[in-house]
Design goal:
Elements: H1 12-24, E1 33-36, H2 46-61, E2 65-70, H3 80-93, E3 101-103, H4 108-120, E4 124-127, H5 131-138, H6 155-167, E5 176-179, E6 194-198, E7 212-214, H7 216-226, E8 231-235, H8 242-252, E9 259-263, E10 266-268, H9 275-283, H10 298-304, H11 308-318, E11 325-327, H12 329-343, E12 346-347, E13 349-350, E14 353-358, E15 366-372, E16 382-388, E17 390-394, E18 414-417, E19 422-430, E20 437-445, E21 462-463, E22 465-467, E23 471-479, E24 504-513, E25 524-527, E26 531-535, E27 545-550, H13 556-559
Parallel strand pairs: 1-2, 2-3, 8-9, 10-11, 12-25, 14-20, 18-21, 23-27
Antiparallel strand pairs: 4-5, 5-6, 6-7, 13-24, 14-17, 15-16, 17-22, 18-19, 19-20, 23-24, 25-26, 26-27
Helix pairs in contact: 2-11, 7-8, 11-12
The protein binds adenosine-5'-triphosphate and magnesium ion (MG).
Length: about 550
Amino acid sequence: MTQPTTLPQNDFIRDIIDEGLRTLTGKKGAHVATRFPPEPNGYIHIGHAKSVCLNFGIAAQYSGTCNLRLDDTDPLGESMEYVESIIRDVRWLGFDWQDRLFYASDYFEQIYSFAVELIKAGNAYVCSLNADEVRDHRGTFTEPGKDSPYRNHTVEENLDLFSRMRAGEFADGAHTLRAKIDMASANIVLRDPVIYRIKREPHYRTETKWVIYPMYDFAHCLSDALEGITHSICTLEFENNRPLYDWIVERLIKGNRPQQIEFARLNLSYTVLSKRRLIELVKNGFVQGWDDPRMPTVTGMRRRGYTPEAIRKFCAQIGVAKNDNLIDVSLLEHCVREDLNERAPRVMSVLRPLRVVIDNYPENQAEEFECANHPQNPAMGTRKIPFSRSLYIERDDFSENPPSKYNRLGPGREVRLRNAYIIKFESMVKDEKTGEVVELHCTYDPATRNGPPADGRKVQGVIHWVSAQHCIPAEVRLYDRLFSIEDPGSEAEDFTKYLNSGSLEILTSCYAELSLKNVEPGSKYQFERLGYFCVDEDSVADKPIFNRIVPLRDSWTKTVKN
Ligand code: ATP
Ligand code: MG
């Protein structure tokens, strides 16, 4: 199995598994089988990635198995596009389900038989209350519910009505099948929950074969049981549903039954992780699609340039907890930065160019500097960077009136060009109308090619540059957090009010060093002093597009714009 190697973890879920395995020692069935069960009604996001890493990680740690199951029992909003995206994304995250790709919709016939079995045992009945009446009968947290008038149908009546529900004799909502549990239960979930409903909605796989569909609570535990899942790991909102999960499998499954274990879902700051909200962002054009690099979706993060290794590391670091919390997105960014620091070759690009002419460098001359691709990793090799009389530097790296602690170029100053000579400011050219500085004239010190100046003088700092004749035009997209407040997901008001208007800045007149000609989409680089960048899939050969993955340091507080 080609599972990613992650160190074995310890947490309360593993403790439960260990405990279960101890009591099973020597008995048949002492294995671990988990599953990742997304509903194909949206693209998966970083929260799902946590669940993927957890389920596949546990399977790998215990030499067990993990299935990928499309939990497609609610036809509304499900589609093959989503299935395909989920398959691609889980695989990209680095996990392998071998031949265990399943669809809950493949179990519809079996789940139907289970329902019939429940009816026959007197454990389910067809109820003809409408949705409002069901709600009225349900009671509240403090008051018990009332029995449905249909609760005491005979088994024959129930079997007849249920088969006619399946046959399409009734309108949507006319009847439901309900588990006969306890209308007075302290747990509202157990007050005769609906387990089947009529819904004339074509299903993307079973098409119009079914007009009744099992509810999540009924289908999920049975799908787990049918696949021999031992540990059904889900998020905390299902805690109250666990007694129902157990009630159903105890009545219908002989032998080993799956055990449901809940953990806290991932909430991430400056992000929303509800599929409904992500769909809203896509459908209403607040972002450019599911793979918009600002989206917390796996496909968005891939396009942005996050690596699967960084995402897995983040998931391992946050661990699993029993209580809901909000994880700071800067932790994810930190993991991305750490991973890219090791793997991304260093290059130089200028995002907001200012022309510099080296007056004492001959007009038709050029030379090359051999530069390390990675300062700590010689195995990543070197490349040659051309130098000539005319260069570009970053506009920000020159100031006519340098503020204090400004370690860059200005009148009367010298700086080191990264990997090359020391240059000295001589004069500047301004636009006559605007007064803006449009060109600098400098001189270089030929004696500083291979080291510090012989006289020991100190220069102001080191800046990056490209040679004007030896660079390529590039577009750079600077991404920032999509929301300007920490917890947009918890806002009762319209969460789109909190979109960060500065979350995308497009710079179209950048220059990248020559070695970046014909780069492959998906390649990642560190632009020295600027951050990590990934070649976007929309790039064209002569003008690559670079997405900024993360700046070199956490600069959120300085860059937020509303
Ligand atoms: P829906 O509202 O459509 O159910 P969902 O986010 O729960 O949305 P599912 O497709 O049901 O989506 O989720 C698949 C699996 O991923 C489930 O086991 C779910 O518990 C888990 N999951 C979903 N969101 C998160 C999250 N934020 N953190 C951790 N796990 C999550
Ligand atoms: Mg769900």
